[in-house]
Amino acid sequence: MIHENGVIDALLFIAVLAPSIILHEVAHGVIAARLGDPTARDAGRLTLNPAKHIDPFGSIILPAMLALGGQNVFGWAKPVPINPHRFAHPTRGMAVTALAGPGTNLILALAIGRFGPFEQIGSQIRIPDSLWARVLFGLLVVNAALAVFNMLPIPPLDGSRLLPLVLSDKGRIAYARLFQYGFLILVLLLFVFEDSLRFLGAWILAIIRFAV
Q: Which one, of 79, 91, 105, 100, lies nearest residue 32 by Cα?
């Protein structure tokens, strides 16, 4: 039997995950348009309408199942379409566009921590005992996690768009071949070799403490 608190926590998690990943994707599209690629804008994706971004399985079903099961939570929204050939400098354009997503999450985390009703006492963070405070703190944690996790250099995460900046032409071709295995690598790291990503927790906690 699933405890009522587990259900509530899962619902709260989805409630804060959805707007966070929507803003993440919209940021990609906005920056892409600024750099010369209007593909996302023309597709109607520069909107906060959840129906345009939510992936039923990746944004709701899978995160809920993982949260209820006490597992590492993993989810995604529909990625906005980007055409790198529309950029004046495709590799650089993709890197800047990719950074827009986690950059937005980082800014949100810092803003929520700065203006939220939280207090840091020593190494502990005090959260008021109210639903609104729990939602805000959930937003802080989720956005900090999205900012850190998405910077991993594993396709299709945003960090994978930065490595080509320092690779040779041959290196970029070789690296591009890994993209078809990226999702599998992520699944293995998240659910099989969980300890391999434990270091991310320290970065997420550092952002949270800095923000508060």
A: 100
In whole angstroms, give the CA distance from residue 78 to residue 37: 18
Beta carbons within 10 angstroms of residue 104's beta carbon: 22
Q: Among 67, 57, 193, 208, which Cα is nearest to 146's?
A: 208
Distances from the Cα of 147 to the Cαs of 33, 51, 61, 107, 169, in angstroms?
A: 21, 23, 22, 9, 28
Per-residue tokens: 155 = 């396709």
Question: What gap in Å lies between CA 18 and CA 28, rounded to an integer?
Answer: 16
pTM of the model: 0.90
pLDDT of residue 35: 97
119 beta partners: 126
Judged by DSSP in three states, 109 sits in: helix
pLDDT digits (tens, 9 = 90+) for 89-146: 999 999 999 999 999 999 999 999 999 999 988 888 999 988 899 899 999 999 999 9
Q: Is 194 a catalytic residue?
A: no
Domain coordinates in residue numbering, the chain:
4-211
pLDDT band at 2 (very low <50, low <70, confident <90, very high): very low
The pLDDT value given to residue 52: 93
Q: How many CB atoms lie within 10 A of CB 203?
A: 15
Look-up of token digits 């802080």: 140
CB 40 within 8 A of CB 29: yes
SS3 content of the chain, % helix, strand, coil (to 5): 70, 5, 30
